[in-house]
Amino acid sequence: MLLATPRGYCAGVDRAVDAVEKALELYGEPVYVRKEIVHNKFVVETLTRRGAVFVEDTDEVPEGARVVFSAHGVSPAVQARAAARNLATIDATCPLVTKVHKEAVRFANTDYDILLIGHDGHEEVEGTHGEAPDHIQVVNGPHEVDQVQVRDPERVVWLSQTTLSVDETMETVKLLRERFPKLQDPPSDDICYATQNRQVSVKALSPDADVVIVVGSANSSNSVRLVEVALEAGAGAAHRVDTAAELDPAWVEGAATVGLTSGASVPEILVRDVITRLGELGFGDVEEVRTATEDIMFSLPKNLRADLKSAGEQTARPRRGGRRGVDVTAG
């Protein structure tokens, strides 16, 4: 078994999940969460059992109650609706998504047309689009480049959803630049470090894997991308599972080598379960394939941090072994 490293929780997901857990401990039940805090079924179910109440929008939250905004971010309109209902908000938006929001506002203020590469309907894209709806158009991929219309080809910039395939995004940018030679790049890379690292890691092991298993939920963009990246990088086959129970033994029948990775919203316990299941199927020799070391950590949302401090609670966030790291025996 080739085990990809890095994998699993990124800093933004770790912060968002921790924010809900700390809020439940500090304020008690219920704590409302708009949308899924992160795109992982197991995480949502676990937090629900602890007292989190997941809602589709702020109008489902009782007036004056407390609500957490998910790691994917929200638009100014959502924030305004929450304020109108006197909701106490905790903004768990990933700081890397917030960076894209600020870029959108900056370019809109200078009257640029903004081409947002991403997936229509994804919460992150909805939030970014909402920052400057009159200036942003979403480009879902290379196949939509021909449909793009701009007011001034001299004043066009591209931004992207943070969880996309790096290769597909750059293919879209290449085609956009052929149409708009003056297309500007974002001030810094929009695709997050964790998304890129996980794609690089799965690329490294895929040529040697008969089958690659990706642990992650179906609505997790970065997890779905990892399946695609594995296949493009030469894996014989690739499958996504939410949990070990979904792993079909037929997938690995006759395989000599299996690759394993997980999306950026997947807790390590789910990966451990798949390792155990693959061990039962004969893949007991585990070799780690490390392509990067991650040590980024984001602090909790400011108002939650302040309330924890006032209550004499710990605001520091040590990494927890249950979310990260797994002991492996080198093959």
* Beta content: 15-25%
Strand order in the sheet with the most strands: 10-9-11-1-12
Number of strand segments: 12
Task: Name the poorly predicted regions.
Answer: 320-331
What is the helix/strand order?
A: EHEHEEHEHEHEEHHEHEEHEH
- How far the N terminus sits from the C terminus, by CA atoms, comes to 8 Å
CATH domain class name of the largest domain: Alpha Beta
Which structural class do you get from the secondary structure elements? alpha/beta
**Integer count of domains:** 3
Named at the architecture level, the CATH assignment of the largest domain is 3-Layer(aba) Sandwich
Coarse morphology? flat
Q: What is the count of helical runs?
A: 10
CATH topology of the largest domain: Rossmann fold
Proportion in helices: 25-40%
Radius of gyration using CA atoms only: 21 Å
Largest sheet: 5 strands, parallel
Average predicted local confidence, pLDDT: 95
